[in-house]
Amino acid sequence: MTEVRLLTFNALIRDDVPARLRALGPVLERSGYDIVCLQEVLHRGSARLLRRVTPGYPHRAGTGAVLLAGGLLQLSRWPVRRHRFARFPMAGPARTELLMRKGAQLAVVETPAGPLAVVNTHLSANRDDDWSEGNRYTGVIRGELEHLARLVTGFEPALPAVVVGDFNVPRDSPLFTRFAAAAGLRDVLAGDTSTTFRPTPRWPAPPALDQVLVRPAPDRPFQARARTVLRDAVRVADGRELFLSDHYGIEAELSFEG
């Protein structure tokens, strides 16, 4: 049995970014994660900071000279054989979020279990917190999920795949269920609707928005399990205690047979 350990984490684009990323680095170094998929790492300066504080992850996947496309960054202990960014179609309503150029980072990582397709994504937010069919953001999210499903099915079937990120869609939403079926993916945390977003007085019961889905290959089966992590505050360099993000992370373990 060969294990691949992965983390997906929305690192939060605002509020004490350098301090939180500096604190995140040692957490990742100690973690034993093999692949880390981050969202909301928009600036190249943040990516450079992460490179300095995560020397155990020499391989990277991120696209863009000044701003990282989609705010997506993948760190890996193993070689990233190829990667590319695919932008989602732009659709209204108008919002500043469109400046992030949201989409998906598609990579193939050479793991001890063989090549693995890793898709890191961040979908548009639903500013109304209403995922009903008639909501103004539902069409936007549906279009992005349909585009993402086509990207995932574009990987060769012989390549096992894991798709992770901040979907901004509840795990029990019909939108998400239809996407998983269309893409041929299994939701590792199906049935677990506990939140992945830190509750606030304004939003005391947020849904599970961060996801891990998998697609084993016919001749490379694996088992997968996942759980939420990075829930607690950490002490930063100036002595303050901060939460690493407004999201929790999700840790996934893929156990390949043979």
UniProtKB/TrEMBL annotation:
Gene3D superfamilies: Endonuclease/exonuclease/phosphatase. GO terms for cellular component: cytoplasm. The keyword Hydrolase applies. SUPFAM superfamilies: DNase I-like. The keyword Repressor does not apply. Keywords: Endonuclease, Hydrolase, Nuclease. GO terms for molecular function: endonuclease activity; sphingomyelin phosphodiesterase activity. Residues 7-247 form the Endonuclease/exonuclease/phosphatase domain. This is Endonuclease/exonuclease/phosphatase family protein. It comes from Dactylosporangium aurantiacum.
